[in-house]
Amino acid sequence: MLSVSLLASAAVFTYCTKETPVQEETPVVNTDNGEANDRGVCKALVTANGWNIDVCGTQNSFVQCGTTGGGVNLFGSATILNGNNQLFIVNTPTSLLISRNTVGPVVNVTATVQTTNSTVNYFVPAFGSVQVDIDDTCNQ
Questions:
Q1: Where residue 116 falls among pLDDT bands split at 50, 70, 90?
Q2: E-strand spans in 11-126?
Q3: Alpha-carbon distance 97 to 52, whole Å?
Q4: Which of 16, 25, 110, 116 could form a disulfide with 138 if both were Cys (CB 3.0 to 4.6 A apart)?
Q5: How far apart are the first and last CA of the chain?
Q6: Peptide bond preceding 93: is omega within 30 degrees of 0, i.e. cis?
Q7: Helix or strand (DSSP H, E) at 20
Q8: Distance between CA atoms of 129 and 21, rounded to whole angstroms?
Q9: Is residue 29 classed as helix, strand or coil in its secondary structure?
Q10: Residues 68, 45, 111, 61: is their CA dihedral positive or negative?
Q11: Segment 73-104, tens digit of pLDDT
């Protein structure tokens, strides 16, 4: 009887083979979380034509000055006197809100925004503002 038990045990162990260990693969983690250093940097030269203008979104301070049509808060502002210009270095994509700082005369008031890749003249309404969008390639 003992020999039958040993024979049965030997048969079972003969068919049970040792499995090779499974090697686990470490998953690749996506570390691209859109940090600020992934953004572009553009130069925007803004010129006031016809009257003084205010520019919001210059990124020269942490003081909120306005909100885009899409609900994005803009920070930093500057006033540019008629006939003058000012250069802003901005992280992109971004927007600038340009408005008249006083009603002034009823004349055509424009703001010329020049970036690396484009120059555009924008009409600035007497009681409103114009939004200038600048993308990662410095296009408006």
A1: confident
A2: 40-49, 53-56, 64-67, 73-75, 77-80, 85-92, 94-100, 110-114, 119-123
A3: 14
A4: 116
A5: 93
A6: yes
A7: none
A8: 68
A9: coil
A10: positive
A11: 999 999 999 999 999 999 999 999 999 877 66
